[in-house]
């Protein structure tokens, strides 16, 4: 350490409790309240769809469930919450359709709701932001209200995952607290 | 009051005056807010710890409940096996009793952990209320400071402008105009005075010439009268 280093101000690593504790700034170990439950941020991931098109995802764990909060930056931020579902709980013709046509059918019925194919894309999933990421193909389906969605992700030839979710607003997430992953869960 | 005491008081008041000059209220307030934010940060970290413990305890309680249910299911399976004749009744009952005993201990642990989780959750709720209060207070102070800083800047600018305007009135243009006015008046008086002196300095020759000029003008008048007579104009 040089003499002048002594006078240099130490970089403040603590977030400002008033301005930095926002939803897009959630980090691993942070806490946030949503839907009457306190949830701990256990993963901070992102999807890279190419051409600087990124989707951010936070895994939020409470005592009894795990949900995924997603931020899709566009002209404005679109927020959604999803929960993983068993891929087998979807119509089992879907797997067959994907394996035959490389794509799922344009409509899927799940829990008596019809979902329509709205978006499809391939990208890389970066768990906790780590490189190089894992390749995936994703199909998004929406119901007729556009508020609820169902997603299918293909990770390998026969490795599928599914989730359902709905749009949310940032204000629904409150009491963001900075935390330390080593202390939690 | 003794002289020494008065001198001490004088020194004290001067020292306060000097410190007052050095003390910037905005910087002092900013430091105060920084200190409050540090306190808030620490309170939030403590709250995060309590919330973490609450979630972990609740999770452990749920796991114990699941384990209890699992042991009960195992005990039932053992009894079913005994019923079907697949397992010796004595052995089945011994194992089922053990399983039920484990079920009981897990149930008791689940109850204890649930109560503990409830206490932690309650504590987290109270702490959250306090943290929100501190947060609201610091936010209010910060907003007040922003407003006061803006007001202070406006006041400083207004003071500067008004001071400039005041300076122009007292010692600027008006004073120069007044000075110029008196100079002009002085010059005019001087010119008038010189004029008077010129009139006063007329020579005898000037008077004679003037008299002669007036006789010339009289003869001219006479000529005019003659002409009028000739023409028959009265």
Secondary structure: helix percent of chain B: over 70%
Proportion of helical residues of chain A = under 10%
Q: Based on CA inertia axes, which overall geometry of chain A fits?
A: globular
pLDDT averaged residue by residue of chain B: 85
Main sheet attributes: strand count, strand direction, barrel closure of chain B: none
Shape category of chain B: rod-shaped
Calculate the mean pLDDT score of chain A and round it: 87
Total DSSP E strands of chain B = 0
How much beta of chain A, percentage-wise? over 45%
- How many individual helices of chain B? 5
Over the alpha carbons, how many angstroms does the gyration radius of chain B reach?
Answer: 56 Å
Q: SSE string of chain B, helix = H, strand = E?
A: HHHHH
Give the count of structural domains of chain A.
1
Which helices and strands occur, and which strands form pairs?
The complex is a heterodimer of chains A (185) and B (234).
Chain A lengths: L30 E4 L2 E12 L5 E8 L4 E8 L3 E9 L7 H9 L5 E4 L2 E14 L7 E9 L5 E9 L2 E10 L5 E4 L8
Chain B lengths: L2 H20 L2 H59 L5 H83 L1 H28 L3 H28 L3
What do these coordinates show?
- Helix content of chain A is 5%, strand content 49%.
- Chain A has 185 residues and is mainly beta.
- In chain A, strands 2-3-4-5-10-9-8-7 form an eight-stranded antiparallel barrel.
- The longest helix of chain A is centred in the middle third of the chain and has 9 residues, at 93-101.
- Mean pLDDT of chain A is 87; it is low at 5-11.
- The longest helix of chain B has 83 residues, at 89-171.
- In chain B, 12% of the residues are buried.
């Amino acid at each position: 350490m040089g003499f002048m280093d002594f006078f240099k101000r130490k970089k403040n690593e603590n977030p400002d409790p008033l301005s930095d504790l926002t939803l897009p700034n959630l980090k691993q170990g942070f806490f946030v309240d949503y839907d009457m439950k306190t949830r701990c941020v256990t993963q901070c991931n992102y999807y890279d769809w190419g051409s600087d098109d990124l989707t951010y995802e936070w895994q939020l764990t409470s005592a009894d469930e795990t949900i995924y909060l997603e931020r899709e930056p566009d002209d404005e931020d679109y927020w959604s919450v999803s929960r993983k579902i068993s891929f087998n709980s979807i119509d089992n013709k879907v797997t067959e359709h994907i394996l035959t046509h490389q794509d799922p059918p344009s409509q899927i019925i799940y829990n008596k709701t019809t979902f329509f194919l709205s978006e499809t894309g391939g990208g890389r999933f970066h768990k906790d932001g780590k490189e190089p990421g894992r390749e995936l193909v994703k199909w998004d389906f929406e119901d007729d209200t556009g508020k609820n969605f169902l997603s299918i992700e293909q990770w390998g030839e026969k490795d599928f995952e599914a989730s359902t979710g709905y749009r949310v607003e940032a204000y629904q997430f409150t009491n963001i607290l900075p935390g330390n992953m080593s202390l939690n869960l | 009051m003794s002289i020494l005491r008065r001198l001490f008081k004088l020194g004290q008041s001067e020292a306060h005056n000097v410190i007052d000059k050095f003390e910037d209220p905005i910087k002092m307030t900013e430091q105060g807010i920084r200190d409050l934010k540090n306190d808030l940060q620490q309170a939030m970290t403590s709250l995060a710890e309590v919330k973490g413990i609450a979630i972990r305890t609740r999770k452990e309680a749920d796991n114990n409940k699941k384990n209890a249910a699992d042991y009960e299911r195992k005990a039932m399976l053992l009894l079913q096996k005994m019923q079907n004749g697949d397992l010796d009744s004595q052995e089945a009952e011994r194992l089922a009793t053990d399983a039920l005993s484990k079920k009981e201990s897990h149930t008791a642990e689940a109850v204890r952990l649930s109560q503990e989780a409830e206490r932690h959750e309650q504590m987290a709720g109270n702490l959250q209320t306090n943290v929100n209060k501190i947060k609201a207070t610091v936010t209010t102070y910060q907003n007040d400071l922003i407003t006061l800083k803006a007001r202070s800047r406006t006041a400083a600018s207004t003071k500067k402008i008004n001071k400039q305007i005041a300076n122009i009135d007292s010692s600027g243009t008006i004073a120069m105009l007044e000075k110029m006015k008196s100079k002009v008046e002085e010059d005019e008086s001087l010119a008038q005075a010189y004029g008077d002196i010129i009139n006063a300095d007329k020579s005898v020759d000037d008077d004679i010439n003037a008299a002669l000029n007036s006789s010339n003008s009289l003869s001219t008048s006479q000529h005019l009268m003659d002409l009028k007579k000739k023409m028959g104009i009265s």
